[in-house]
Amino acid sequence: MTSYNNALVQEVFGNLSIDKTRLPSSGLTAIGVPSFVAEWLLDKIVPGFGALTSLELEKVSAFVKKAFPRKDDRNEIIFDLTQGEVRKLIALVQVRVKLEQGTGEIPEPFARIPVLNLSDCTIPLSLIERNKMLLRQGVWGKISLAMQPDGKVEVMDLDPFQCSTVDLESYAERRAKFTTEQWRDLLFCSIGFNPDHPSYTTEAKTWVLARLLPLVESNFHIMELAPKGTGKSFVFENISSKVALISGGKVTPAQLFINGKTKEVGLLGRHDVVVLDEVQSLSFDNPDEVIGPLKNYLASGRYNRAGFQDIASDCSLVMLANIDLDEYLRPRNEEHLVADLPKFLAETAFLDRFAGIIPGWKIPKFQREMMASQVGLKMDFFGEALLTLRQDNRFFSYVQRHIKFDKSATVRDQNAILKAAAGFLKILYPHLELTLMDFQRDCLDPARKLRQAIRGSLYYLDDEFSQFGREIYAEVK
């Protein structure tokens, strides 16, 4: 076991890296600021190493008080605007276009600032042109607000936070300076976990990093089943604004697909990854209106609702659910893993469309000392690097050349394993320098295990799958 090399990370990644002890001591995440914004801010306001000093904390607190609005600040901010003040704030801004038929006018886009419950602000077209992400999931940034003579709030200016583009060639060159173990630990630390903690074995790290597969692979749909407290949703909440998390409760077709009243495209059409958390308590008002289009989407990457054109999307869907374990810390229903989840998940046609199930019971429960305390990559840079890797086809070509299936694998099994293996390859070997043994151990084996968990349930549920046998075989060629 090699100990973590902070100096190497700093030397190779420079200002794209940050000491991960800065964030927990800042209190920023406690007030709802996602890590990818908070780390960017800390580096701007109080660059440095180690936990924040009392003086640095004071500086951050003063900044937060001034720049981060809370919901109950709304009236005060509106009052200041009516007095002719320009207010500068840090918030998420989204832009929408209302389509109203028959008016004969070209609709004006309008901006929304969810934290202030402002939904009809004007915004210059030049700002939208420069920041097209406003039209999708929105952009975190420093915004300047003013009031126009007609009483409408205007977003006058926007200084976006998110890392805009990542040079994959440079990212790959930097990866080459690390061993595989060092790189795995760097990624593990970057998403907020302590790679030196003895409970995190190489296998546990593999399954934690499998959470990144939906970011590097488009239309990659996966589940994670685990007991409470393994940190399932942590990475998704903090890595990028292009990832949307819906927690438990009810999910509506308008939310997911398209809103019939406003014609607004739903989460699956606007984000790169949509995560349904607490799936065990998920319910739908009208299940058929959700399950039908969802099944169609999982198979084809397209969906529609009555009266609307098909919408194509490369969004990955992730489902996270809590399950019970037995006294040996194994799932109670190991043969049929989704037994205790909502009925629609146990429908074979639905389940078969998922690439795999992450065995969250093999990830230790999260405790305070498992939090990263080393130097890792800044979350906004790391999230963007992963999402940029989606566009690179070299990894899928490599995987196709080097995996051989026998008749035990259905077409869906093959596609799922190829995509998952390509995803692990992007995460661990973005420079594509590896041996076939490395590929088998770090990419093919975990990819096959992910899909095997789906096959196990399908085999249990439906005799049709018994012709293929219980096990899927795949080998390196």
CATH class of the domain at 175-390: Alpha Beta
Reported by name, the CATH topology of the domain at 175-390 is Rossmann fold
Tell me how many strands there are.
Answer: 16
What CATH architecture of the domain at 175-390 would you give?
3-Layer(aba) Sandwich
Distance between the termini: 30 Å
GO molecular function: peptidase activity
Keywords: Hydrolase, Protease
InterPro entries: BrxL-like, BrxL_N
Domain BREX system Lon protease-like BrxL N-terminal: 11-145
Task: Describe the 3D structure.
The chain is an alpha/beta fold. Among the domains are: 85-160; 175-390, 3-Layer(aba) Sandwich (Rossmann fold), CATH 3.40.50. It has 19 helices and 16 strands. The chain has helices at residues 6-13, 22-26, 35-45, 54-67, 74-82, 125-130, 168-175, 180-190, 202-209, 213-216, 234-238, 253-256, 267-270, 287-300, 348-351, 379-388, 394-402, 411-428, 436-461, and strands at 17-19, 87-97, 109-113, 118-121, 139-147, 153-160, 222-226, 243-247, 273-277, 302-303, 311-312, 316-322, 356-359, 375-377, 403-405, 474-476. Strands 4-3-2-5-6 form a 5-stranded antiparallel sheet. Strands 8-9-12-7-13 form a 5-stranded parallel sheet. The protein is globular. It starts with 5 loop residues before the first helix and ends with a strand. The relative contact order is 0.12. The model has no long low-confidence stretch (mean pLDDT 89).
